[in-house]
Design goal:
The chain is of the alpha+beta class. The chain is built from 12 helices and 6 strands.
């Protein structure tokens, strides 16, 4: 019950943010966004229909796909959210905040992207192009990103022909801002990097990771393997997550200890639990590392 209430409140806030982006920035200045929202705005500009009704009508085919490709919980949340957004847009009466086209594109995308991102993070979809991407990916194996990209290329090309090239260009800028903000809302503002480190000097690297970088880690026992240096002896493998700000310092530290260390770097979108998220002091990290080492030796 508590989780449901929290999700509902956050989705409602996301809908409110998206409505500000549409009503205070994009709609008064005839700018588009990508996806179903962009199609609705384009049809509204062409035929002068109510954008609220068009938003529901255009979203209907995408919601049909959602029924077959997403969970019923997400489908229900998405239907309620899109209808709620349409109602708020209909009754909301924001005055246009600025006439500067660059500010309109940036801040319209900022508010719209924030709203869509908050909704997605809590299990609701405000724009149907993501649903189309998921459906085609499951059916034909084409990546979601490619589907959304082709979809919006077609939409903005039509916009350039029917409305104007300038509106299409500003709409592309709006779409890019919206997409980036959605990613930030879903993945978070902190930029984490995962490292898997294989080295004969793993003990020294462990010590420096804790003492100098202040990062926690998980240490795996590595089995025999074969590399460019021939048959590798058994050693430990370090798996750690650090903030991207620390990446250069970490690489320099590893190079100083073992220039031949094998390192795999990968992006980390979210972290949940673990000592990294508890923001332990370096003194406590050292205690944890010592405790883990003793436990490994006992085994």
């Amino acid at each position: 019950m508590k989780q449901w209430l929290s999700e509902s409140v956050q989705i409602a806030f996301g809908i409110f943010l998206a409505s500000i982006g549409l009503k205070a920035f994009l709609l008064p200045n005839h700018f588009l966004d990508g996806g179903a929202t962009g199609i609705s705005i384009l049809l509204s500009e062409m035929f002068h229909f109510d954008i609220s009704i068009l938003l529901i009508v255009v979203s209907a085919p995408f919601l049909y796909l959602a029924w077959h490709s997403l969970s019923k919980r997400i489908f229900i949340k998405s239907v309620i959210s899109i209808v709620a957004l349409a109602i708020i847009i209909h009754y909301e009466n924001f005055a246009s905040i600025t006439d500067d086209k660059l500010l309109i594109a940036i801040f319209g995308g900022l508010f719209l992207g924030s709203g869509i991102g908050v909704a997605i993070k809590n299990g609701a979809v405000l724009d149907g192009s993501e649903i189309l991407g998921i459906y085609i990916n499951k059916r034909f194996g084409i990546s979601i990103g490619k589907v959304i990209l082709v979809f919006n290329i077609i939409l903005f090309s039509i916009t350039a022909i029917i409305l104007s090239l300038e509106i299409a260009m500003y709409s592309i800028l709006t779409f890019l801002v919206t997409s980036k903000v959605i990613d930030l809302m879903i993945e978070g503002f902190e930029d984490f990097v995962g490292l898997m480190i294989v080295s004969d000097h793993y003990e020294a690297i462990e010590k420096e990771l804790v003492g100098s970088i202040g990062a926690g880690m998980t240490v795996y026992k590595g089995a025999l393997g074969y590399g460019k240096r021939g048959l590798q002896s058994q050693n430990n493998i370090i798996h750690t997550v650090i903030n991207r700000i620390e990446i250069n310092a970490t690489y320099k530290m590893i190079d100083r200890i073992d220039p031949n260390a094998f390192i795999i770097e990968f992006d980390v979108n979210a972290i949940r639990g673990g000592i990294f998220r508890k923001y332990l002091s370096r003194e406590n990290l050292i205690k944890v590392a010592v405790k883990d080492k003793l436990s490994t030796q006992d085994e």
